[in-house]
Amino acid sequence: MKDNKEKKVLKPLEAANQEIPTIKYWPDVWRRLKQNKLAMIGLFIIIVMVLLSIIGPMVSGFTYDKQDYLYIDVHPGVESQYIFGTDDLGRDLFTRVTMGTRYSLIIGILAALIDVVIGVIYGGIAGMYGGKIDMVLMRIAEIVYSIPYMLVVILMSVVFSTGSGSGTSLFVMVLAMTITSWVTMAVMVRGQVMQLKQFEYSLASRSLGGNNRWILKKHIIPNTLGPILVNVTLTIPRAIFSEATLGFLGLGLQAPKPSLGNLASDSLSSMAVGNGYQLLFPAVFISLIMFAFNVLGDGLRDALDPKLRK
Questions:
Q1: Which pLDDT belongs to residue 252?
Q2: Could you tell me if 113 and 178 are in contact, meaning their C-beta atoms sit under 8 angstroms apart?
């Protein structure tokens, strides 16, 4: 009888000593992100858009600048080879929309990457060293941030436009968008660094002889990846929308290179003669891209929030 009682007492003790399964941080972030249906819809749309921008021009059988004057303003469904129809110069609209999506995504991603590189380095130095260095760097950042973003982009596009005045190059477009937009990333990273450098692991690394550069590189920046990722997902649609605005104003990529903004601008003249489909497709693609990146950014922000971790 005694042995049976001891066994009954030991069983709960053994169960308590068993290791509780734990989930690592990034797998847990992915698990929570998957639970957000709207964010997953956004991620799916982004994947589809990327695949369309790569595969679309390859499978269409046309180039974005090929003109066929026998098929001008062909509506969708009239000719089987023209899925989205043609424009006023007989160019395949499906090829131009998917190619325009490619250029718009490239501009958005490059602008976001440059923002990350400049913002992380600038904000990391300001937050880590503090004092006079932080004061000088932040005053410079405030001066840059006070300049209207869209005004700088428009001025850069006008000044560095091509000789014919019909648009700008991809490099100038990306440069114009990043000349002031990195400040938001820098301020966010600075705040994170100033907070994280007071944590125990940073102080322990310093006590073991780690210098500022080592602590920043090995301990602090890896722990700011969450907010950086969220900022990137919100920077990309802003850059794409800025490019679309410039293209709509006639300051986008040099013709005949298509972008979603250029396509929307070029289609305005066709609206009066009943060719609204030429505006519909680029407008839908712009709207879907903006929606997808914004809901994905919101989903990432919730998934990366440690307060919501269960």
A1: 78
A2: no
